[in-house]
């Protein structure tokens, strides 16, 4: 069960991972091993990140689940190596998650990860957000290290149903990005735009989210089909 703890770093991290992932911890371990192996080899994870995958990436993403409503439909924009989308799927099997990623080598990695981890609540879609906006009306859109909020909002908000939420994982510049993005957010007629911290006591510092609640959309888009699009 503890094959991946070599990547954890500290005993405290082991305890927190047990708390956060619970019965799903063995699945999270397999994902950590895949990230540290194939993820590094294929350039999706930097080689220096392998020794701090749990604290910096897995637990940091898992605590985002605190902000996601029960049974939500989620689209993870620019999913990359599956952070936070795959982590959320592991820790929250009640969620239905689409990993949206335009690059072929990354969608291949995601397809392999989803198949290996046996995640029935996940589909992989190779596309840019702006290309599929009319196909989605989801409850939550997530993104991590994709783009500044001003640009990310233009991609994410058209994917949300009215009242749906963008949860963007951000760092030290979160407040500044939110201020810079307010003109764009106002044009989209968002209901709420605020900072929220999750994972207190589990990650230090806590994970910072920019939470944006979508307003009315001009042309309600249709919901995406459930079949997975395989990369070729």
Automatic annotation (TrEMBL):
Q: Which residues bind S-adenosyl-L-methionine?
A: 78, 83, 129-130, 144
Q: Does the keyword Ligase apply?
A: no
Q: Which key words tag this protein in UniProt?
A: Cytoplasm, Methyltransferase, rRNA processing, S-adenosyl-L-methionine, Transferase
Under SUPFAM superfamilies, the record lists: S-adenosyl-L-methionine-dependent methyltransferases
User: Mind listing the GO molecular function terms for this protein?
Assistant: methyltransferase activity
How would you classify this enzyme at the top EC level?
Answer: transferase
Keyword S-adenosyl-L-methionine assigned: yes
- Its EC number is 2.1.1.-
Subcellular location, principal: cytoplasm
Q: Name one GO biological process term.
A: methylation
Localization of this protein: Cytoplasm
Q: What does this protein do?
A: Specifically methylates the N7 position of a guanine in 16S rRNA.
Family per similarity comment = Belongs to the methyltransferase superfamily. RNA methyltransferase RsmG family.
Protein name, per record: Ribosomal RNA small subunit methyltransferase G
Q: What is the lineage of its organism?
A: Bacteria, Bacillati, Actinomycetota, Actinomycetes, Streptosporangiales
Gene name as annotated:
rsmG
């Amino acid at each position: 069960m503890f094959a991946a703890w070599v990547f954890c770093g500290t005993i405290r991290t082991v305890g927190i991972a047990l708390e956060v992932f619970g019965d799903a911890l063995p699945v999270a371990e397999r994902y950590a091993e895949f990230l540290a192996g194939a993820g590094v080899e294929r350039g999706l994870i930097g080689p220096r990140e392998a020794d701090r995958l749990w604290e910096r990436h897995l637990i940091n993403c898992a605590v985002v689940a605190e902000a996601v409503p029960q049974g939500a439909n989620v689209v993870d924009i620019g999913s990359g190596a599956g952070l936070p989308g795959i982590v959320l799927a592991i820790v929250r099997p009640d969620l239905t998650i689409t990993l949206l990623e335009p690059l072929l080598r990354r969608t291949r990695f995601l397809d392999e990860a989803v198949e290996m981890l046996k995640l029935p609540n996940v589909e992989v879609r190779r596309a840019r957000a702006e290309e599929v906006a009319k196909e989605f009306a989801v409850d939550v859109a997530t993104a991590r290290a994709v783009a500044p909020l001003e640009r990310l909002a233009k991609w994410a908000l058209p994917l949300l149903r009215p009242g749906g939420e963008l949860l963007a994982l951000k760092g030290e510049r979160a407040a500044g990005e939110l201020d810079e993005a307010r003109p764009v957010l106002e044009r989209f007629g968002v209901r709420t735009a605020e900072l929220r911290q999750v994972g207190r006591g589990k990650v230090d510092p806590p994970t910072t989210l920019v939470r944006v609640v979508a307003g009315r959309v001009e042309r309600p888009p249709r919901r995406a089909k459930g079949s997975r699009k395989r990369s070729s």
